[in-house]
Amino acid sequence: MNYLIIILFSVFLSLLAVLITIKEKRRKKKYKDFPSYPTYPLIGNLSLLSFSLNGFLRKMAKVILPYRRLLFWVCHEPVMFLWKHDDIITVSNQCNNRDLHHFVDEWIGFGIISAKPEDEWKKSRKVLNPAFTSEMTARYVEVFKKRSLAIVDWIKPAADSGKIIDIFQLAMKNNIYIIVENTTGVAMQNMGDKGKEYGDVMEEATFAILERIITPWLHPRFMYNAYLKLTGKIKTVNKFHDLPAKILKSRLNEYRNKSGSSFEDADSKTIIDLVIKGGVHESGFTETRMKDELLHIIIAAIETTSLTISSILLMLAIHQDVQQKVYEEVAEVFRGGNTLTPDHLMEGLKYLEQVVHETIRRYSPVSFTTRRLRKDTTLKDNTVIPSGTQVVYCLHFANNDPELYENPQIWDPERFSEEAVQKRPKGSFMAFGSGPRSCIGIKYSLQSIKTQLTYILYNYHVSTNVTELREDQLEMDLNIRSKIGYPIKFTRRQP
Predict the structure, then answer these.
(1) Alpha-carbon distance 111 to 106, whole Å?
(2) What confidence tier does 21 reach under pLDDT thresholds 50, 70, 90?
(3) In 335-369, which ranges are continuous DSSP H helix?
(4) pLDDT at position 188
(5) Which of 268, 340, 354, 406 could form a disulfide with 413 if both were Cys (CB 3.0 to 4.6 A apart)?
(6) Strands across the sheet with 390-394, in order?
(7) 327-331 contacts, C-beta under 8 A, 24 or more apart
(8) Could you tell me the end-to-end alpha-carbon distance of the chain, in angstroms, rounded to an integer?
(9) 137-153: buried (b, 16+ CB within 10 Å) or exposed (e) per residue?
(10) Under a CB-based contact definition with an 8 Å cutoff, are residues 392 and 79 in contact?
């Protein structure tokens, strides 16, 4: 009997292998016109990335950059890597579907970043749009200013001691405070080390998501869930969801405890009120979905903003001439006792904005994003990418394309002067994606970054022992970050 079971099981596996082989041959025939590397059974092309995040950016560059478009097989799944801006714009304008193969569900749930069908993404966008209008963003500026003064105070001990510090952790902590207060309307003054703790959890989450993508045996959900439990990482997942869950629960309890109050009566002064108010009118918008939307706002508003601020300060510390120009522009805002206003952030501080854009271009905080094609998509040269293809936009490579930016690895804010921008194709600069599904909070992020930098640079001169930040000093998970950190020496400026 045991022999019969073994024989039947062997026959089953053989038939399954034959069916998978036939299916893969048919699929590969659809992509015969696209360059690709030799594949291996079960793992596809993942061996090219060595199943490791060590040196991941360098490995990605070696694999992708020789080709304008590259067909890459993640196990048996065809993935099209694109890094030329016109290809990315064409695809993003034709497709709003996103599918990350459920690689991120355990970590970030189901919200505006990971909503897969277009109709679900539209629900998320409808609920969150009111939180990012010009009127609401202007309200957030007061919190930006208050927290900018706080980080100025946090820097004082390092400035007085003359020590070089890595500014990233302070930036992360401050941006957690900012998003929590703008989300809830309540200041987190007694947060203590929780800001740093949540920042550490966020860094671990971005690492773990990419780790799963490049590790074939972690793709099946049951395997990954077992892995999370066995390694204890399930505790990190729970911590990641804990902050938005507590924020939502607290606010919902407030409304439920108010006699005669309803969710529709939300006063719309904070992000959480707007999510609740919008969510109750959308079918399928459960409390879990609301919590996930908050989590996505927190993700988008903290790490990318903190990385950008840290990179800018490091670049200004290296490039003293640029720092002086920024300081003169910033000092003009405060001359005569003036205060920073939303108008300054929207219409003024033009040179600082050039610095911000050039830093995002050179050290793209978002390394890649994805789409799932719902129909055959024709590119400008009449090449057709088949329906159902998973497409990955390599934003870091797109923003460092030598066809768009001469000597792209040189950091130069003059690339974003009005004259220089007009010479480049429209849409060539991809700060946070492209097309209708680009980041909903671009305006929020830019105003937060500019406000914090304005106060820091008005109060401190920055210097560093680093002479440059080269490509080989960068590392990549879901974001691009410096392997050497962001070492800054702060010196108080005279009023």
Answers:
(1) 12
(2) low
(3) 342-347, 350-362
(4) 66
(5) 354
(6) 69-74, 77-82, 390-394, 368-372
(7) 327/457, 327/458, 327/461, 327/493, 330/453, 330/454, 330/457, 330/458, 331/458
(8) 89
(9) beebbebbbebbebbbe
(10) yes
CB atoms within 10 A of CB 468: 12
Rounded Cα distance, 354 and 319, in Å: 14
pTM for this predicted structure: 0.90
Tell which residue, 334, 382, 368, 328, has the closest CA to residue 351.
Answer: 328
- Which of 155, 488, 167 is CA-nearest to residue 306? 167
Cα gap 82→95, rounded to integer Å: 14
Tokens encoding 129: 């749009």
Structure tokens, 344 = 């300054």
Dist. CA 96–CA 70, nearest whole Å: 21
Phi then psi dihedrals of residue 22, to 5 deg: -65, -45
Instruction: State the Cα torsion 205-279-285-261 to the nearest 10°.
Output: 110
Closest CA to 87 of 111, 61, 64, 60: 64
492, 460 in Cβ contact below 8 A?
Answer: yes
Tokens 């990335």 appear where? 49
Residues 278, 276: Cα–Cα separation, whole Å? 6
User: DSSP letter string over 363-400?
Assistant: T-SB-EEEEE-SS-EE-TTS-EEPTT-EEEEEHHHHTT
DSSP state of 76: T
Compute how many other C-beta atoms are within 10 angstroms of the C-beta atom of residue 118: 16
**Environment class of 160 (CB within 10 Å of its CB; exposed 0-12, middle 13-18, buried 19+):** exposed
Burial class (CB in 10 A: 0-12, 13-18, 19+), 232: exposed
- CB 207 within 8 Å of CB 240: no
Closest CA to 311 of 143, 452, 196, 157: 452
Q: Using alpha carbons only, give the angle 390, 72, 35 rounded to the nearest 5 degrees.
A: 115
Q: What is the mean pLDDT of residues 210-232?
A: 89
Residue 425 carries which DSSP code?
P
How far apart, in whole angstroms, are the C-alpha atoms of residue 217 and residue 225?
A: 12
Q: Specify whether the CB–CB gap between 367 and 17 falls below 8 A.
A: no
Percentages (nearest 5) of helix, strand, coil residues in the chain: 60, 10, 30
